[in-house]
Design a protein that fits this description.
37% of the residues lie in helices and 24% in strands. With 249 residues, the chain is an alpha/beta fold. It binds adenosine-5'-triphosphate. This is ABC transporter ATP-binding protein.
Length: 249
């Protein structure tokens, strides 16, 4: 089998006596959505932060596209194609949707300082940004300030920004959070198509979305992966049902 896009090996992270990530190994393969689920405080965000480079693991390694990236910082991992969206928005509210995406495109291209009016007419920057906005369904909101977008639209915008970075893998931290049922359905369709572009490691509490989308699901409880498998395998796993899906033992 081809080497996974992302390969996490025996990752641990302690905060004092607390093992927030405890000997976690998992991988992300080309074309798939791998969902990571678990109760509040299980260590999902801590794990994503270590993968993105925001947090240094206590031990273990992270391989991305066949190389050990454990010692690289966030910017270098992003430059190599690891795109993360956040639980808490990182948008600039007063900027238009287009300008928010273009900042990301510009960062990727590593272009040196230019006056913004020049940037806004530079097709090499505007075209990929508009394409990313259209892709997520915001083609008619290009000029709208991020502050005037609905909650759901802002989540779409965050995904457009991740897309504009032409990632080799997406790390999505609760993209459905705060979405109504209609928004969640639309986002589910979008993520479904996105996996063809780059595989997705998806942290999500919305179980309808997880079971609809995930090719594989890993369940994390108290920092440890207690089960990993297809949706059907996870549904049938008695340890998962007791520990997470809330069924009596
Ligand atoms: N910087 C930190 N210092 C100390 N403890 C931390 C730190 N960050 C996280 N923790 C603890 O590590 C554990 C895992 O937290 P984490 O945020 O990763 O969980 P989570 O699974 O993402 O939860 P949620 O689903 O609520 O977002 C929690 O007990 C949390 O309190």
């Amino acid at each position: 089998m081809a080497e996974p896009v992302l390969d996490i090996r025996r990752l641990s992270k302690s905060f004092g006596a607390l093992k927030a990530t405890d000997d976690v190994s998992l991988d992300l393969r080309a074309g798939e959505i791998h969902a990571l689920i678990g109760p509040n405080g299980a260590g999902k965000t801590t794990l994503i932060q270590q993968i993105s480079g925001a947090l240094k693991p206590s031990s273990g390694s992270i391989r991305f596209l066949g190389e050990d990236v454990s010692a690289l910082d966030v910017a270098e991992r992003a430059r190599r194609g690891l795109a993360r969206t956040f639980q808490i928005s990182s948008l600039t509210p007063e900027f238009s949707a287009l300008r928010n995406v273009m900042l990301a495109v510009q960062a990727r291209q590593g272009s040196s300082f230019r006056f913004f009016r020049d940037v806004m007419t530079d097709a090499s920057l505007t075209e990929p940004a508009i394409a990313a906005l259209s892709r997520v369904g915001l083609g008619d909101r290009v000029r709208t300030p991020a502050a005037e977008l609905s909650h759901g639209e802002r989540r779409q915008l965050e995904i457009a920004i991740a897309l504009a970075l032409r990632p080799k893998a997406f790390l999505l931290d609760e993209p459905m959070a705060g979405m109504g049922p209609e928004g969640s359905r639309a986002l589910t369709v979008l993520l479904d198509g996105l996996r063809a572009e780059a595989p997705i490691l998806l942290i999500e509490h919305d179980m309808d979305a997880v079971f609809a989308l995930a090719d594989r699901i890993s369940v994390i409880v108290y920092g440890r992966i207690i089960a990993s498998g297809t949706a059907a395998e996870i549904r049938a796993d008695s340890a998962v049902r007791v520990a997470y899906l809330g069924e009596p033992g």
